[in-house]
Write a structure and sequence with these properties.
Layout (H helix, E strand, L loop, with lengths): L1 E5 L2 E8 L4 E5 L10 H7 L4 E5 L17 H14 L6 E5 L1 H12 L6 E5 L9 H9 L4 H7 L1 H15 L7 H10 L5 H12 L15 E6 L4 H13 L3 E6 L6 H4 L1 H22 L16
Parallel strand pairs: 3-4, 3-5, 5-6, 6-7, 7-8
Antiparallel strand pairs: 1-2, 2-4
Amino acid sequence: MSTVETNGVETYYERRGDGPPVVFVHGAVVDHTQWAPQFDALADEYTVVAYDVRGHGRTGGSDRETYTVDLFAEDLAALIDALDLDRPVVCGLSMGGCIAMTYASRCPDGLSGLVLADTFGPVSLTLGERLQRASLRLTIPPARLVGYERVERAMVWLRERTEAGISGDYDRIEAIRETGPPMSTAEFAKVIRALASFERARVDLASIAVPTLVLYGEHDAGFVRRQSAVLGALISDADVLEVPDAGHASALDEPAFVTGEIRRLLVRVGTVNSGTGSGSGTPGPANAVDDA
C-alpha cells in the first residue's frame, strides 16, 4: 500500500509504468478506480498515477472542519511535488475535473496537458443550474439518516426519469463502492459542500495555456454539456468532444473511446514538448496553490 504525506494527510496512490507522467483525479464519493480502464491501458507507455482524494477511499478523512476544491487542488499539487512528477498531464472527471482545472490555473507551469471529463467550471450559471447546484446540499440530511448510498440511488432514479442515460453504467459505480472503503457521513457532507460551493472559486480559465481535452457524455446532464462548451471557449487551447452513448462517467461508460482520445492528447503533448523543450519544467510546489 503506497501513501505519501500531502498537505497534512496520508494520501493513498497507485503508480505504474515508465514514461511521461499522467495523473488521474476521480469524482466525488468514489475512488481512484474510477479511472481504472485508462490507468491500465496507458501504463504501457506512460507513468500513470491515480490517487484517492482527501475524504475518499484509502486516503480517508481528516480533521479539517470544511473542505474546498482549492484544498483538494493543494493536495494534488503536493502529491505531484512529493512524487517528483515532471509536468504531468492531469486528467479529472466530474469533481476531479474541478480539482484539475483549479490546479492548472494555480500552477500553470506544473502540468503539460489537461483532460476535463464530465465536469463543470465556476462560470455563470442559469437559474436552473443554480437551483440544481444548491440542491446538492439537500442530500446531506437524508444521508445522515439512511446513508449516502441510498440517497444517491434515489437521485439516480429521479435523474433517469428526466434525463434518460445520464447515469450510464451505474453498476460500475456501485462496484467501486463495494470494493473500496466506505466513506463516513461526515466526510460525505464536507465533500458535497465543497462541490456545491465551487462556483464561488477563483479559477482563471484563461490562464490555462496547455493543450486541453474537454469530454462530455452524450447523455450527461444538460448543464454539463452546456458548461463543457463554455470551458472549451474560455481555455485557449481546448478541444471539446462528445463521448457517444456515455452518461456522467464517460471513462467507465465508454472506456475505449476515452482512452483513445487521451492517447491522442498525450501524443500531441509529447510532440509539443519535444519540439519546444517545455517538458523540462518541474511542477509547482504545494504552496503554489492559493490557500482555501
